[in-house]
Amino acid sequence: MTAMPDTPVPRTPKARLEHAAQRLSKVADALGHEQLAQTVVADARRRLDDGRVRAVILGEIKHGKSSLLNALLGEALLPVGVTPTTGAVVAIRSAATAGDGSEPGTYLLEADGGRTPVDAERFATLARGKAEDEAGREPELLVDPERLPSAVELIDTPGFNDIDRFRAALSRSELPRADVLVLVLDATQVLSRSELRLITDAVAAVGGLDESGGAKLLVVINRIDLVPEDERERVIAHSREGLSSVLPGPLDIYCVDSKSALREGGGSADSELEAVRALAAVRARLFGFAREGAAILPARARSAMLRQARLLGYNASFQARALYLERDALSRELAAVESTLAAREHDLDGLRKRIPAAGETIVSASKERIAAFRGELEESALAQIHKADLSTLTQVIPGAIQDAFLEFARQESERLRGELEALTREIFATHGELAHRRLVEAMMPLGFRGPGLYVEPPAVIVEVGTLALGLVGTIIWYLGSTVTGMVMTIASPLTTVILREKTVRDARAQVRDALPGALDAATDQLGAIIDKLVARHGDALDDHLMLADLSLSEQLLTALRTAQERLDRHEAQLRVHAAATDAATEIEPAKAEVEVEVEADADADAEPSKAAPEAAPEPKDASKDSKEGEDTPAEQAAKRLRERVAVVAQAELNGLEAQLDALITELRSIELDREAEDPSGDDEDAPVLH
Q: Signal peptide location in the record (predicted)?
């Protein structure tokens, strides 16, 4: 009996996600983004192997984020005070996760995971943002395992409205890596506009909540003790109403008093104070995510990789644009970007605010041009209608109006393309690939058909009228008196003339009546297309800014440098290939020349009179043959080489983009097992003491 072949065992969702992370990391490396490649692998390992849920604490300055964390931990381990305290990202982890035997205490964490102990005073200075570690290490607080589950890590962040915008941007850099967002509001000044923008950006940065992106959200209103009890329900209602405008689904809002809870050693569910019991509920919910890691983390890993793939797609687009720049132009571009970035760091908040403002200016100017064009077109059309005959009214004028609109739309498309590219260059300080490859819809005529202006053909009405008069005259001629019949028959052509004039007047009136509505419909359609186009472009720019975050400057330079390196590599390979090809092709002609010489010598011995060679033609002067203004053969060869290099480099880049597309498709196809075994182990059921 023949043995049946082994059936391949389907890979688990976890294995597929890990494999996708490795592939995505390789693509990032190939695109020159080594740091992003490391982040992809590190985040996948934390989520899929270590099973650690990352909770990021967000809020504006002086809202008590650090006080909340101290209360959750049951001890004042983070610096607090009357001035803004957290000026850097601070990671808080259980000492059980260290893996290197590190005891609870304060450390500086290396990029490779190594730890260096630091005294409490230095730690506080770094955490407050009063100084920066010269090696770029991250302040880390390791706590007793009894205070924090090993499967949960907490990230304290600077206030988002800190005067130092760098700190705010640094906070946002942690958002994409978050699994849980804890939004801290102040009961005395709850839910400002900036906080609504914060939470909107935060949800977008993590890729969405629950089903869409797998992230979780907790809303904590701190310092509720400063609000009279009869006003607290109003504070909660106001918060719920504001948040519901930007967040889908129901929200759990916790009103806490962190300071009172800390005085009670962290607070408990049995406290006499409702605000302290609420903090205990926050702790239970937050630390309870440790037991939900098997459901939360695979979804978060997939969402993060989809985000990272999208970011790599943007950067590949920038690099693709750079491939087609002249080498000197690319060098100048790189130097200009380096100079710009050296002069000032990208202010992400400022850049993001400029995008919608610039978009409104572009749209406003476009609508003014459309309105002016409409007025001129209507005036010109009415002048033509006043003297037009039937054929012109029914055939020429509608087509002319549509052609005029389409030509204006084409010109407006080119103007908008230039303005959007200028905006992109201003935002990114480099060539705007988003205005070239990813916004093909800027060619608005492809989606714009011009105004529809229909005039009923009056010639048919005239013919029917003439026929009716002729029949009437004939009938009267036979059935009535001769005089009457003759009168009608003679009158028929005259009446036809009168009817024709009346029909032309009616047609002119019809066109005049229909023209304003047709022009309004056309301008509305064109305006809607422009609104949508500019909004899409702004969204794409904003999306890239949010995805790139603090690494934006580095990524722009990396795209240009990698493009230059890619071109250099392919040019060198093509030159080697061309040299080898030339050497091979020179061998055959040399053999042929030798054979010809041998035959010629033989002929010369036989017939000396025929052996005398003709005078060799003078070599041509290439400079004489080339017309003035044309490239020399050497220049043409160099141009062809540049074109071949760009094509080969683009083909390589297309392959990487195809891999990204395939990865995105595969990631979306993975069916996550919500009932999978908790990868974090059984130790999360151990009690957490306060």
A: none
